[in-house]
Specification:
seven-stranded parallel β-sheet, 14% helix, alpha/beta
């Protein structure tokens, strides 16, 4: 499968490594910002900017969003929705070094990075990042456009809303619900439900 990548930053580098490890995909080019055009990332050309997207991709072609996400999911979401509107094929990318239960569901545009684990009966939405060494336990639900960062643990039955960022090394207690558009700082311990559009760091006990 030939594949364009949308986003030319650090997350793009990590995605390229996953793609090369999977095999079976040919990266045709990278779409970045205007000042990144004609540069290279790991041997792949940045061939255009977001404004040029429709010059490179057409209905039936394949692309993947490789913009990172911390404070806001807006850019990732906008690019993903643009691909949907253009009728572009958007794969699911699963590292061969990840574990995905046969009894779980992962939707389009999502990537499972090296060492991540998605256990039984979990559901991961569209356009999500399950980053390196993250653990998504049984019966967890993760909404669209959310980023579960490195070494995060979502224990059984956790609910994560859409457009969330759960920072590296965070632990979310079993059964806790996290609302939409929540940002949780690295190393946090989440023991109670978190309201939508909150920023939380450290120990959160309601």
């Amino acid at each position: 499968m030939t594949l364009y990548l949308l986003g030319a930053g650090g997350h793009c580098r990590s995605v390229i490594d996953v793609i090369e490890t999977i095999g079976g995909h040919t990266i045709t080019g990278i779409i970045g910002q205007a000042d990144e055009v004609d540069t290279e990332i790991m041997g792949y050309s940045v061939c255009g900017s977001d404004a040029d997207l429709e010059k490179f991709v057409s209905p039936g072609s394949s692309a993947f969003v490789t913009v990172g996400q911390i404070k806001s999911a807006e850019l990732r979401q906008a690019l993903f929705e643009k691909l949907l509107n253009l009728d572009i094929d958007i794969p699911v990318l699963i590292s061969p070094h990840a574990h995905l239960s046969a009894h779980s569901d992962v939707r389009v545009g999502t990537i499972l990075m090296h060492g991540s684990v998605v256990n039984s009966c979990a559901e991961i939405g569209n356009n999500c990042i399950i980053n390196s060494m993250a653990l998504v336990e049984h019966d967890v639900r993760v909404g669209d456009h959310s980023h579960i960062a490195t070494r995060t643990t979502l224990n059984g039955g956790v609910r994560v809303g859409s457009s969330c960022f759960i920072g590296s090394g965070s632990i979310v207690k079993e059964g806790v619900s996290i609302g939409d558009s929540v940002v949780i700082g690295a190393g946090s311990l989440i023991l109670k439900d978190v309201p939508a559009e909150s920023f939380v760091t450290g120990v959160f006990n309601g």
